[in-house]
Specification:
two-stranded antiparallel ribbon, ADH_Fe_CS, Rossmann fold, Glycerol_DH, 51% helix, Dehydroquinate synthase-like, alpha domain, glycerol dehydrogenase (NAD+) activity, alpha/beta, 376 residues, six-stranded parallel beta sheet, NAD
Length: 376
């Protein structure tokens, strides 16, 4: 198996970067399609489009319907082709961005990714996570090339809901946990190759940055301030986590996240990162992580107010039969669970979910943890 390293062409991060982005975008084309949802249009989209039009670009505005699906990609691709678009710009959250990737590929245009929150590592990845119209996980869609440009405006992100930053931190913390498992297995990365030393180093540095600056970044976000800490965490949540997971591999944490789509219930009120936090906890239990290490992760997640018990994820509402459905989907042959260094069965997943919850509750009984953020 060949070693492989993949990445976007250009990554630009900074305060108010969207307001001087024309110098980067003009290299790609003049006829733009900007994709955003109704909420983001009000927050940042209208101002961004006005700036682009004043800078001489021809802009087609399209409102994202809310689900990253094959049907939504097809709908917007038709518009892009009819308008002879040269550049697709995805402005918003992970599902908007994942949809814009599919549109750019199918319409054969350049792609600009402009996240309005640092809630996940989708911006730098060369793949989309697609769902059915009903929100059930459908597939990982891989593309022959990455985005041409990623724009991270830290002023917008500092003003985004704190929950989005915390969710991104949770998603990013899974990066090195899963990369280490994949490395031991000599598993396959999301780019369908063997991990490079560069990919492993990026995943490790992602975790280092989170340990050092996550709490300060959350406090900055609470106060809508652009600080060195929030700049560091935005980079960790997007660039380091994105390059880390794609070039070093996913394992149990994201497989369990995908397994949750096998059931209905209140767990689907949680964000991607919040679900991945519990999946990461479960992976550490599957790996029989020593308690000194496990306690450090538990304290980190609890301090950030993340849901890492069956009760907090609402999984306690499900029957054992329903939990086993999660385990079966998480261990499906094409899932990233295959990158675990040992065979994982559906029953092992269920037992590890229950054990993870028990360990966290035992930790709470013997330690005082003051969360710096609450989802309620």
């Amino acid at each position: 198996m060949d070693k492989m390293f993949v990445s976007p062409d250009t990554y630009v991060q900074g305060e108010n970067v969207l307001n001087h982005s024309s110098e980067y975008i003009k290299k790609l084309g003049n006829k733009l399609l900007v994709l955003s949802d109704e909420t983001v249009w009000k927050i940042a989209g209208e101002g961004f489009v006005n700036y682009l039009e004043q800078s001489g670009f021809v802009v087609e505005k399209v409102t994202f319907n809310g689900e990253a699906s094959v049907q939504e990609i097809n709908r917007i691709t038709k518009i892009a082709k009819e308008k002879n678009v040269e550049v697709v710009i995805g402005l918003g959250g992970g599902k908007t961005i994942d949809t814009s990737k599919g549109v750019a590929m199918d319409a054969d245009t350049k792609l600009v990714v402009a996240p309005t929150a640092a809630s996940a590592d989708a911006p730098t990845a060369g793949l989309s996570v697609l769902y059915t119209e009903d929100g059930v996980f459908d597939q990982y869609k891989f593309y022959p090339k990455h985005s041409d440009l990623v724009l991270l405006d830290t002023k917008i992100i500092a003003n985004a809901p704190v929950r989005t930053l915390v969710s991104g931190i949770a998603d990013a913390m899974a990066t090195n946990i899963e990369a280490k498992a994949t490395s031991i297995k000599h598993g396959v990365t999301m780019g369908n190759g063997a991990a490079t030393f560069a990919g492993r180093a990026i995943a490790a540095e992602c975790e280092n940055v989170l340990w050092k600056y996550a709490y300060e970044a959350v406090e900055s976000n609470k106060n809508k301030l652009v600080t060195p800490a929030i700049e560091a965490i935005v980079e960790a949540n997007t660039l380091l986590s994105g390059l880390g997971f794609e070039n070093a591999g996913l394992a149990a944490a994201h497989a369990i996240h995908n397994g949750f789509t096998a059931v209905k219930g209140d767990i689907h009120h949680l964000t991607h990162g919040e679900k991945v936090a519990f999946g990461s906890m479960v992976e550490l239990v599957l790996e029989n992580t020593p308690h000194e290490t496990l306690d450090r992760y538990i304290n980190f997640w609890l301090t950030l107010g993340l849901p890492i018990t069956m009760e907090d994820t609402h999984l306690d509402q499900l029957s054992d039969e329903e939990l086993l459905k999660i385990g079966k989907l998480a261990t499906a042959p094409d899932e990233t669970m295959k990158n675990m260094p040992f065979e994982v069965t559906p029953t092992m997943v269920v037992d590890a979910m229950k054990a993870a919850s028990a360990y966290v509750k035992a930790y709470k009984n013997s330690h005082v943890v003051t969360p710096i953020f609450s989802r309620s």
